[in-house]
Amino acid sequence: MLSEELREYMKGKPLDPESSDFREIFISISGSTPQILTESLYYYLSPYFGKQRIFEKILIITTRHGLQQLDRHLLDGEIFGRMEKDLSLPSGTIQIQHEDIKLISDQNGEVLEDIRNTEDNEEALTMICNVIKSFTDEPDTRLTVSVAGGRKTMTSHITAAMQLYGRDQDEVIHVLVPSEKENINAIGRDVWYYPSDPSDPLQKLDVAQVPILKMGRYYLTGDQLKLPPRKLISVLQRKLEDAADHAALLRINGKEFRLGPETITFSPMAAVMIRYFLRRRFTAECEPDCPGCELCCPTKIDILDNITDLLTEYRSFDSTGGNHDRIEDRINKISSDVNYDKGLNWLNSHLTSLRTELTNSLSSRYRNLGLELANFKVSSEGAYRKVQKQGEAHGILVDRQRIVFEN
Ligand SMILES: [Zn+2]
Questions:
Q1: Which of 130, 233, 234, 301 would suit a FRET pair with 2, their CA atoms being 20 to 30 Å apart?
Q2: How many whole angstroms separate alpha carbon 143 and alpha carbon 25?
Q3: Rounded distance from Cα 281 to ligand 1 centre (Å)
Q4: Per-residue CA distances from 203 to 39, 73, 78, 181, 198 (Å)
Q5: How far apart, in whole angstroms, are the C-alpha atoms of residue 160 and residue 232?
Q6: Is residue 132 situated within a structural domain?
């Protein structure tokens, strides 16, 4: 909670416009140059930049090495006191409580000197994610997260954590200072903490917004968000892939079917039959997600009535390898005889091959789309009932809005 004095101070100040909507939380990772903290805080506490935010809490995530640097430079409060005076802020505006310094420790709870190996790295990820999650669980907070300090692994972990748990209002930032000032701080002999005059070009401070995609909170449920970070990332990845598959179109060009990045080529007869079923589905006037009816799923008799068209297409697909005489013979026999018994035998054997080809050759991407042979029993009143095998009618129940015939 902010003190009475700070609340009084904030009245009538030109604070960052969104500041009144949120409790402001500042989180920084820190390594060997804790000056990054003073530079970033100066940027937000000074009215000069037009981004003034009064932070209710300032949190630092660091290792033992980082803590030593903080201790040496900042924790006695002298620099913070000076900054408050320079900016005419009430004393105590910048407060870092003991419990607000989050130290990264190993599996046994030992505080890490530095992040050096895979296990340390994993602990750091979990810890950083826990901190970010707990503060973003509170709907009235806004997080300003500085990624400028600390090791690169910490930077990438906190960025990942913000992608998992961040909300629209939260920001990831990186403070930028003139390279000369950066060099002074790197040498560590003379330390530059913040500008004495923010309008001086040689002391120019800037803050870059780091663009991130905030996904976790928008794609996952509250229970899923409680999963350990790595598990959570894989669940989220899966969800995004499913969503992409869901939006993808099935593009049909001859024997070739394309879905997202995958292309599949069926045998000529399977391609002819899939195309026939999909075209039927595509032109039917039932609902796009119809579970199967006489409009979108033809009976065997329907199929045999259209056999000339099917076989004509087959002839064009199989022009290179097929036995022309046999094909012509078959077309003539089946179409001219109207011998349904013979025709049915022929059709049943091809439906079986089609079913096998669809089951064996498809990735989960195609299966999610519904590219499989559906079978129906048809009652004497014409009602359709889905069955596992055989049946009198068949179809492929792909959403027609996702079917595109290119050729
Ligand atoms: Zn239908």
A1: 130
A2: 5
A3: 7
A4: 10, 20, 21, 8, 6
A5: 11
A6: yes
pLDDT score recorded for residue 314 = 86
Task: Tell me the CA–centroid distance for residue 267 and ligand 1, in Å.
Answer: 26
C-alpha 248 – ligand 1 centre gap (Å): 21
CB atoms within 10 A of CB 194: 24
Which amino acid would we find at residue 221? T
What is the distance in A from the centroid of ligand 1 to the CA of 276? Answer: 15
Is position 220 within any domain? no
Q: 289 C-alpha to center of ligand 1: Å?
A: 8
Distance from the alpha carbon of residue 257 to the mean position of ligand 1, in angstroms:
22
Distance from residue 382's CA to the centre of ligand 1 (Å): 13
Q: Rounded to the nearest whole angstrom, what is the distance from the C-alpha of residue 203 to the centroid of ligand 1?
A: 70
Residues spanned by the domain of 159: 4-214
Ranges of the chain with pLDDT below 70: 185-189, 319-328, 330-340
Do 37 and 175 fall within a single domain? yes
Residue at 232 is within a domain: no
Question: Where would I find the H helices in 34-101?
Answer: 35-45, 64-73, 78-86
Instruction: Tell whether 37 and 137 lie within a shared domain.
Output: yes
367 and 288, same domain (yes or no) = yes
Q: What is the CATH number of the domain that holds 63?
A: 3.40.50.10770
* Whether residues 38 and 168 fall in one domain: yes
Residues 206 and 252 in one domain: no
pLDDT, tens digit, 9 for 90 and up, residues 234-276 = 999 988 887 777 778 899 999 999 888 788 889 888 999 999 9
- Residue 190 counted as domain residue: yes
CA of 296 to the centre of ligand 1 (A): 4
Tens digit of each residue's pLDDT (9 = 90 or more) over 345-383: 888 889 999 999 998 878 877 888 889 999 999 999 989
Tally of domains within the chain: 2
- Ligand 1 centroid to Cα of residue 294, in Å, is 6
